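The data are quoted verbatim for completeness:
=====
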Amino acid sequence: MVVLEERFDACACNVTVTTSELVVELVDGRRVSVPLAWFPTLLNAPVEQLANWELLGDGEGIRWE
């Protein structure tokens, strides 16, 4: 029996931070959102800082100052 494995790379292309969620848009069109409460540092950060994100690598990570 042959099993084909299709691999999807989950690389980010955009990030949005709302008052309650971190939303990451992936290059393949998917959107992933998680509660901002999971990231206490981001939850307590100023709005200006939250808007100043940077993608690492080819979208494999996200960085804030």
Summary: The longest strand covers residues 12-17.
